[in-house]
Amino acid sequence: MKWAFVLCAVVALSECLLQVPLEKGKSAREALEEQGLWEEYRVKYPYNPISKFDQRFAVAGEPMTNDADLAYYGIISIGTPPQSFKVIFDSGSSNLWVPSIYCNSPACNNHHKFNPTTSSTYRRNGGSLKIQYGTGSMTGILGYDTVMVGGLAVRNQIFGLSQTEAPFMQHMRADGILGLAYPRLSASGATPVFDNMMREGLVTQDIFSVYLSRHSQQGSVVTFGGVDPNHYYGPITWIPLSNELYWQITVDSVTVNGQVVACNGGCQAIVDTGTSLIVGPQSSISNINSHVGASSQNGDYRVDCNNIAQMPDVTFHIHGQEFTIPASAYVRQSQYYGCRTGFGGGGDSLWILGDVFIRQYYSIFSRSQNMVGLAQAR
């Protein structure tokens, strides 16, 4: 399979890193902007990123939301012979699910559908799966099959086969989701893929790491079993988790030009590959955007594209270290809507460090130590 490869390096011990390249495709927002449908869509399906982390759904159902800016996906396969799917590798959720032949929602009809009748290794589970979205839901059934991830064969992996899907999935390039958070979060008690990798001894270390390229559509990758030094430089800062459900850490403060503008006295943040923006409480996000010179327009924070070089850095102070996001990283440019920042509001106290943050900082997720490692991305 040309989309999966194994990288072996000689270190103190022989270490093999299993990697899945991620492609940065066109986001749902970009596709809708091209069609002139974005304003209608955003009113009909408002973005509520923090709903994904509503603790009320932490056991009974796993909330998701209509993040129209998600663009990174990788390819996995399910079944024998293998059926390929584009999935979002999501550190903010725990279930694996893909569209199936049992689904006739518009969101399924323009994506690949899993056909269990053509897989010799498929087994029914008999259970059901329901995942709550901010603007709808995904429902389906559970089954077992061989899942190939980065060249690894994860046998008897439980996964969801969708029967209905929320409308916003119709506009996304990815077919489904592969969750990488803790098993306690998993809907229907389904064992997450990475937990099965660890249990079966398929990875050298109980670690996965994510690199999101800043400069091209190619080059992004999720690595299972360790870290890839080709994707970062300098020291790794290891941060203990404050909640072993999501990849949740404590942020000490957020500053602009040395002035605390948010998270004064500390706040909680989730490092989430399944959210595109940096998200925080509305008042804090408004304050950050005000300090960088952005103005609110129709739910976005707009800036003059000619001013990017003069705009200040935004610095997150975490575990005694500074993690700085320059304007070139937090400003997004659209040929249809100009320039807007990557800071979005939502929720009351929780923060999400999404792709805007992860593009700057190579992110390492250690299940063995229950820590997140951050290092300057190349």
TrEMBL record:
Gene3D superfamilies: 6.10.140.60, Acid Proteases (2.40.70.10). SUPFAM superfamilies: Acid proteases. Residues 1-16 form the signal peptide. Residues 72-375 form the Peptidase A1 domain. GO terms for biological process: digestion; proteolysis. The keyword Signal applies. Keywords: Aspartyl protease, Digestion, Disulfide bond, Hydrolase, Protease, Signal. It is an enzyme of class 3 (hydrolase). One of its GO terms (molecular function) is aspartic-type endopeptidase activity. Disulfide bonds join 103-108, 263-267, 305-339. It holds the Pfam family Asp. Its EC number is 3.4.23.1. The active site is at residues 90, 272. The keyword Hydrolase applies. PANTHER family: BETA-SITE APP-CLEAVING ENZYME, ISOFORM A-RELATED (PTHR47966), PEPSIN A-3-RELATED (PTHR47966:SF22). Shows particularly broad specificity; although bonds involving phenylalanine and leucine are preferred, many others are also cleaved to some extent. Belongs to the peptidase A1 family. This is pepsin A. It comes from Scomber scombrus. The lineage of its organism: Eukaryota, Metazoa, Chordata, Craniata, Vertebrata.
